[in-house]
Amino acid sequence: MASMARIMAPQIQAHPELRGPLDPQALTDNTELVEALVSCVLPAGLQRFSFAALATPSSFDIHWATPRFRRELLDAEGKFRGEPFLQGMTWVYLRQLFQFLSVARQVYGRQFPFEKSVIIEQTGENGLVRYFQLRAHFDHFELRTPEKLPKITDEAWEKLSMDLDDLDLWKKTLPLEEFEMYGLIVYEATDITEEMTLSAIKQELVAKDPLQDSQRFSRIQNHFRMLLGVDDLRLLVMGSRDGLVLELNPGESSTSDWRTVDLATINQKLSPRCQATLREGRPIVMEDLHKADLCSQMMVDASQKGARSYLMMPLFFEGQKVGVFTFSSGVAHAFNNLTPYRLQEVTPLLALAVRRTWDSFQQRVESVIRERFTALHPAVEWKFRQQALEVVRTDHDLELLGEDIVFQNVYPLFGASDVRNSTLIRNATIQQDLSLQLRLASEVLENAYGERRLTYLSSRRYRLQQWLAHLEHGLDSGDEPRIIEFLKGEIEPLFERLAKFSERVQAAVKSYREALDPRLGLVYQQRKQYEQSMTLLKERTAEILSRRQIEAQQVFPHYFELHKSDGVDHMLYVGPSIHPQGDFDPLYLRNLRLWQLETMVEIAAESRRWTREMERVLESAHLLLVQDNPLSIRFSQDEKQFNVDGAYNARYEIIKKRLDKAEVRDTGERLTQPGKIAIVYSHPREAAEYRDYIDYLQSLGQLEGPVEELEIAPLQGVVGLRALRITAAM
Fold first, then answer.
1. Three-state DSSP class for 141?
2. With contact defined as beta carbons under 8 Å apart, do 84 and 131 qualify?
3. 3-state SS class at 575
4. Which of its termini does the chain have fewer beta carbons within 10 Å around, N or C?
5. Is the predicted pLDDT of residue 262 greater than 60, yes or no?
């Protein structure tokens, strides 16, 4: 530097116009000398590629700039291209605010920190945005003050500190024109487009539903265009789960363009080489589709639409592949093998966004299924999911897709295990509990009347005795609530007063209250035993059916439903329309019929063993309904359940509902008997098939005794039914 100073000092002395306040023309007239002087601030070797400039501190006018600074940041008049990336701030505002803050700090010792660099946002002719960070260095700047400083009160400074961004207040408080800013400012700029766009992409991806909102998706695509400098970049995101692929594109509507495709369909578009590359987590880059060996139909499709370069990258979340995304461009070599490295910061967030999109999508589908179809068996859920996907994908109202879903040509298999005489037993337990409660209440009143002969107590006891006499002849509809209302409303309110008559009355009241169920407030002994036994019977029956059903689904996927009332009913539907991708064969139907009979044999045998654990013994009877002709079932949107479709098939439903009361013709005996299985049929070929199954199970020791051939007495609207009845072995 000393050597340079010795060389340059004479030249500076020879040009006095370069000393003191400068006329910009003086710089133009002495270009070589100015360049030499600038090299003391910015080495000549860096000037070609760096962003640097020198400016007047008072006006911020730029008088010298590196070629790159001038080319990329200044317009033809030497003004900055682009605006500060600060809310509500312009260049004029920033210049004045800086000047006021400088005077306050350097002259008055008032520190108002504002050491913020300025980010310039530029929009190019191609629509892409670039960002530059501009910093100002003040090493060559000084502030010259007047001889008499303007006086500013503490109160004025206090007001300023509350509104530092109010330029009008600054102008009223501090006379800036009395100060001289001498020297120069050195500008330094850095291209931060990549950092800004990466940050913007991250912010978009962590927002709610970033891939479902069309405007947000379009912004993400534009940010990728800025990041890579590819103005026609086209983004496609595909998430995969459960055999489906969800394609996401920016659309014109409020939601992005969704399209669901079978994963198998997508895989068919990928060669084994492409699939292997993506499984390994490696990207596929085609710098020129016209010259490359295309391994994907998607690349062929993109090429036919005008794309020249193509990038496909896999997305992994927690070690699991959740999808891929692709870039395409009409410019060859827009992407290369280094491009994926520039995306490493955002691909994990993009994978997370895909995962969240799928979760949100699935939640909406499940919501549609719950609202439209309620809970569904997995064997038929695919059909309903198709319609739910259509509702979500097209954003249609549920009511616009109101057609019921029908499964054609399915074979029904119905079975029932009912508790014999459940209604009579339930009524008997209610009768026993009510009678006990009435007797205990009567004892309280009898003891109380013995202590004090109050006629009202005698009349209430008379009413209790009337109810007891009535119950001896049986329980009528409505008896239970009327008796409970009488006890709660007229009898029990007396007990607190009556208990004070004597210790004997107090003991009777205590016995009454101890007999009551603490939760229900009434005698519930017999009913509790009955309900516990009923629950045991139903739960264990359902457990066997559910456990065995897992095995049956392995035979051939089918619809299965189970209902609990006074027993357990189950219904199977099997056929090619239930599982269209399966190769249905009558062999599977015969296997399921044998499975159902064997399961009912197990339930019948076990139910007799369960009686040993019951406080109230309950016996169950079992039946199967056979139909060899297929029928159609329709899922009713109103009832949210499957019903047989059409008048011809309605006969099957009628038989199901009336079989529990069926009797054997001429004898009047109930068809269903404890420990036995009744197999109801209409055609001899059905009986022949089940005789074969019975013979097989007898050989295994699961059935015993002779097979009864029975004719069923006519049911309302149904005649001609017959049955086989066989006993389950213990």
1. strand
2. no
3. coil
4. N
5. no
Residue 375 is predicted with a pLDDT of 46
Mind listing the domains of the chain with CATH numbers? 41-191 (3.30.450), 195-347 (3.30.450.40), 422-526 (no CATH), 529-728 (no CATH)
Mean pLDDT score, 649-653: 75
The whole-number pLDDT of residue 506 equals 94
The answer on pLDDT for 277 being more than 90 is: no
Mean residue pLDDT across the chain:
83
Ramachandran bin of 312, using left for φ above 0, alpha for ψ from -120 to 50, beta for the remaining angles:
beta
Q: Which pLDDT band, with edges at 50, 70 and 90, does 211 fall under? A: confident
pLDDT of 403 above 60: no
Which pLDDT does position 649 carry in this prediction? Answer: 66
As a whole number of angstroms, the distance between CA 185 and CA 714 comes to 109
Task: State the residue for tokens 């003991």.
Answer: 507
Q: Are 178 and 103 contacting, i.e. CB atoms less than 8 angstroms apart?
A: no
H/E segment holding residue 642 = strand 641-644
Long-range contacts of 646-654 (CB under 8 A, 24+ apart): 651/718, 652/412, 652/625, 652/627, 654/715, 654/717, 654/718
pTM over 0.85: no
Residues 6+ apart with CB under 8 A from 18: 12, 26, 30, 33, 34
Residues 6+ apart with CB under 8 A from 512: 437, 440, 441, 443, 444, 495
Q: Give the integer Cα–Cα distance in Å for 602 and 702.
A: 8
DSSP state at residue 417: E
Mean pLDDT value of segment 111-116: 68
Token code pair at residue 619: 């016996």
DSSP character at residue 74: B
> Does residue 255 register a pLDDT over 50?
no
Main-chain dihedrals φ then ψ at residue 708, nearest 5 degrees = -90, 130
DSSP-based three-state secondary structure for 89: coil
Q: Between 31-38 and 2-13, two packed helices, what is the crossing angle to 10 degrees? A: 150
Residue 33 three-state SS? helix
CB 434 within 8 A of CB 481: no
- Cα–Cα dist 283/312, whole Å: 6
Q: How far apart are CA 226 and CA 232, in angstroms?
A: 10
Per-residue tokens: 274: 């492409």
195 vs 227: CA distance, rounded Å: 8
